Structures are given as structure tokens and as C-alpha cells.
Amino acid sequence: MTEQFLPSLDLSPEFVEAAQASKAWPFEEARKLVKRIEKRGGDAPVLFETGYGPSGLPHIGTFGEVARTTMVRTAFRLLTEDKIPTRLLCFSDDMDGMRKIPDNVPDKAALQPYLHMPLTSVPNPFGGDFDSFGAHNNAMLRRFLDTFGFEYKFASATEYYTSGCYDEILLRAVERYDDIMKVMLPTLGEERQATYSPFLPISPKSGRVLYVPMKAVDAKAGTVTFTDEDGKDVTLEVTGGKVKLQWKPDFGARWAALGVDFEMFGKDHGPNMGLYDRICQVMGGTPPEHFVYELFLDDKGEKISKSKGNGLTIDEWLTYAPTESLALYMFQKPRSAKKLHFDVIPKAVDEYYTFVQKYPEMPVMQKLGNPVWHIHSGNVPQINLPVPFAMLLNLVSAFNAVNKDVLWAFISRYAPGETAESNPELDRPVGYALRYFEDFVKPTKSFKTPDEVERQALADLDASLAALPADADAAILQDTILNIGRAIERYQDPNKKGPDGGPGVSIAWFSALYQLLLGQECGPRFGSFIALYGIDETRALIAKCLKGELG
């Protein structure tokens, strides 16, 4: 991937001044980095890094790491008025041995002979133009990062080890072998201490990554000696891709070799952070600034895994929602665990569009706290979305729509002048809503059969709607619905007050409407739904419910 030009920033004094005080987490992290650079001095580019283990297809957590790092990078650029060059390196640990066969590959048995070989030596089980499993997974990562428009440089561990880029740090690791062992051994159990080595040789005979003790380490020759799988002793140079470092020493050595200034990683790396730092220092480097984020969970609350393939994939999210909604999900509360499953998508979509539509009217300080400033690297688009995504979903649900034309007929009536051609930004969620409904809402729809109280309530609502003009707005329709609920004891809420001082309406009234008319547990503001769907159409829906025809 060739590095692209970074998007321009508004560097006006009011933005720069607001950045100094902004409490948005990317600015808090960027200010730590500013202090680091001031202490270091010099004019070397500031290096941001993200790591990727291509043992499986990239998942959303991988994207989140790059998105969040980019947000910190943008905040740093504003704080420094873009006077200090920055780089983002997306580093793939593709020389790791394949310790187990992922569950989500087409033919697991075909990969069995390649266990413990470097991922870039394992055949590509997916076919196509890529010559290895590692190369395929790297390409999948780059494809998405390119689609989203990240500015970055991709780096392969295999390339760095084999090209000589790592030779200096590897020779230094040989020289400081004892110091590395002093850091690592206290963290290991007695049995592991007896066999541990920071070096993992690649067997010249089998091609596998070997976890074996070193029989000799020769700093002067730059070699290590070990017993190969056939029982014979082998001496290898540590350079040229013949040997790699264990993952913990590799972390710290990479920081030292490349001069990394900032790297974030998941909570599972947190306990090892001190080890990474000490190894970096042993290698003569300065540990980078860190940011530890919470893990991503699937719908069962289990950590998502590339090898298991649980949780959402990047492609799955993008089937039902725009990329910006995913970036918003990554921005929010990064130190809190997040469930990544299909149910979170509609809320993320609507929140994104709400934030982007509020942005122009905000004062500068609030703009820098608005997630969309960080999502769009300061270049927030102007978007008019008169119909929320949740409303589109419910419109599809009510009408069982199967194409965009049906939805647009309703939208154009609700918002005159809006068309797919004049508002392509609205046309995007229209398409997403159709797909989401078909795959997730429709299979779970379950209409409630009305009891006598509900039948009377629906009949009263129908009569009230019939008395309204066809162009009644959402506020009038909402009041009409509330008036029906207030008159029914079941739906009264004594903790709320109505306009006449009597009890207000409980959420149970709206829940009943959702279950009776839409076949789902929750939904949009019902007055707005009727304004969009139509009074006559809503009355037809009520009639079907009363006749038992919706189920």
C-alpha cells in the first residue's frame, strides 16, 4: 500500500485552542504523545503502529485498532498544528507459526501438514491469487483499510525478517541474550524456564517454527545452535529470516527497531505491557505511549477470535450499515467491553447520522467532542437524513417492502422533494434497511393476538385517526396516540403526569402497539411512524390486526 496524502485540517486558532482543552479521549492520548515528542526533541516523524495477527480473517476488532489509532493521530496533528510529520504503520505478524487450524477455513484437513509453519508458508485455503494463508489474510485487511480510506503503510514481518530490515536488532538480541532472559525467565514457570528461548528457529528441514531451547548463542558470529526435529544439532544465523523472536520479545524488539511512538492493544495484552517495555529498553529503545482498550465480545459475551470466526466480520457489518457507523461504534467508550453482534447495528447507524447532522451548529469545543470529527479526520460531510434508520426498518416491517421503490414512495410523501437521486446519502440506509429486515427482523417477527382491552384500544385509535386530516403531522399523531393510552387503566403510569394533571402513559402502551402491529418488541416514536407510513395505511394495519390477518 502506497501512503496517501493526509486529509487537511482546520488549523484556525479557535480549533487549536479548543484541542488543548478537549476531553475527547483521542485528544487526551495525543497530549501524552506531544509531551513525549517535546522531551525527545528532533524532527523525526512520529510513528503510530498497529499490529495484526493473520492467523485468521481480519475481524472488526482489527479495524477498530486502526480506526482508533487514526483518531489519535488526527488529534495529535491538530494539537501540533500539523507541523510534525506522522506515519501509521500497520504491521502484520505473518511469520508466526500456525499453532492451530482456524475453524472458518474451507478445508481444515488440507492444512494439517502445515501446522507450526510460518503463516506465509501455509498454502492459501481460499484459492485465488494469493500464494499463502498469511498473504490472503493480509490482503483482506488491506482491502478494507483501503475501502475506508485510511492513510497507512502496510508492513509484513516476513518481509522485515527476510529482507535484512531486522538484522541489526536481531544481532543486538544475540549480544543481549542474557539480559533478555533475565527479563523473561521470572515470568515463566519452572518447567518452561528450562526450555525457553527468545529465539524461534525455522527448521531448515521441516520449515516449522520450533519452540526449542538454545544449546549455544554466539554473539560474535551472530548465530544460535539448537537441536532440530531429527535430533541433530543445527547452527543458524539469526539474520535473513532463518530465526524469529518469540512474540513477547518480538513486541519490544520491534518497538526498538522501528522507533514506535504510539501503539494501542487489547486488554489481553495488558499484563504483558511491562515486559514489552523492558525488552524494548534492553534493545536500546524507548517504549511507546500505550493505550489499552477493552475486548470485543460476541452475542454470548465471549471474546471474538479470528480463528473461531465468532462475532461480526467486517463484511457482515458493511452488508447492513455504512462504514461510518462502525467507526462510531469504535469511538465510543473504548475502555468498556463491547458486544459485536447484529443487534447493535441499527442504533449505531442512527447515532452516526444524528451526530453528523448536529455537527454544523455546534460550538468548536463541542465539535471536537463530537465523534464525527474524529471519524472523518476533521472533514465532516453535510448530510440531511429526514428519516432515521430505525424508522426505515419499521416501515419495511410494516409494509413487508422488498425493494427501494416502495420505500421511496413513502419517503417522498413524508419529505416532499426527497428522491434517491437528490439524496443519495438517504438512499444508502434505505438499501441497508431492506437487507437487515430480510435477514434479521423478518425471521423473528411474532405478532401478538390482541385481548379484549387491546382490541378496544385499537378500535379507539382507529376512530381517532379517522377523524384527523390526512396531512396531520407527527406531533398531532403522537398526541392522539397518547390520549388513547391515558384513557385505559392498564396503560396509565402514576409516576407520570398527563396535560390534565392525571396519570401519564406507560411504555406498555407503545410496547403493545409494536407487538400488535409490527410484530416486534420495540420501535420508533409511533407518531412519527404513522406520519411516514400514512394514516390510511396505519388504519389498514389495525384492521388486519383485529381480523387476525397479520400473523
Strand content: 5-15%
The third-level CATH topology of the domain at 13-176 and 247-297 is Rossmann fold
According to DSSP, the number of beta strands is 14
For the sheet with most strands, the description reads:
5 strands, parallel
Overall mean pLDDT stands at: 91
The helix tally amounts to 24
- Low-pLDDT residue intervals, each spanning 5 or more residues: none
Highest CATH level, the class of the domain at 13-176 and 247-297 = Alpha Beta
Task: Output the CATH homologous superfamily of the domain at 13-176 and 247-297.
Answer: HUPs
Strand order in the sheet with the most strands: 3-2-1-9-10
Structural class: alpha/beta
Q: Summarize the amount of helix as a percent range.
A: 40-55%
Radius of gyration: 29 Å
At CATH's second level, what is the architecture of the domain at 13-176 and 247-297?
A: 3-Layer(aba) Sandwich
Span from first to last CA? 53 Å
Account of the protein in words:
The protein contains 24 helices and 14 strands. The strands form five sheets. The protein has a five-stranded parallel β-sheet. The longest helix has 20 residues, at 60-79. It is α/β, with parallel strands linked by helices and 551 residues long. The radius of gyration is 29 Å and the shape is elongated. Among the domains are: 13-176 and 247-297, Rossmann fold; 389-443; 452-547, Arc Repressor Mutant, subunit A (Orthogonal Bundle), CATH 1.10.10. It has helices spanning 13-21, 25-40, 60-79, 108-111, 133-148, 157-163, 167-175, 177-184, 190-195, 247-258, 273-282, 314-320, 323-331, 345-358, 364-369, 371-375, 389-399, 404-414, 424-441, 452-466, 474-486, 507-518, 526-533, 535-547, and strands at 46-52, 86-92, 153-156, 199-201, 216-218, 223-227, 233-237, 243-245, 262-266, 289-293, 296-297, 338-339, 492-497, 503-505.
